[in-house]
């Protein structure tokens, strides 16, 4: 069964890459953009949703888009773990939504950890923000500020909850 899942996933990724290449290299009106992205994600996109090109994803079929969503140019969605974007969300240019990671244990480093990303209604993801696996951005939240180096930030409002030790490996 796992081999069948892997083969199906590989075929979907290949199809996704062909569609993305067409999407990002040809001229399209907004209705054609919605149609191509609908094919990529396997869901009809509302006419009220606007996606600026280029748009990127790795898998595509695990993206769920609400209505009146605005996705600016150069947004990347790594969606194997699932990405849900609710109604009225704004996503700034160059944002990354990442729902997949690799295991930390070197013995299992090539194994994947899938954790969904959820962007709740009316949230705003600012330009070049990165949303990591397992993160939910709450309703009406705004993500626009830098996070200091070597810190873990969480909560509402977001606060530094941990400073990381900068250990250099020899």
TrEMBL record:
GO molecular function annotation: O-acyltransferase activity
Keyword Nuclease: no
Keywords in alphabetical order: Transferase
SUPFAM superfamilies (UniProt xref): Trimeric LpxA-like enzymes (SSF51161)
UniProt KW Transferase keyword: yes
Domain of life (superkingdom): Bacteria
PANTHER family per record: ACETYLTRANSFERASE C18B11.09C-RELATED (PTHR23416:SF23), SIALIC ACID SYNTHASE-RELATED (PTHR23416)
Family: Belongs to the transferase hexapeptide repeat family.
UniProt-recorded name of the protein: Acetyltransferase
Organism: Lactobacillus crispatus
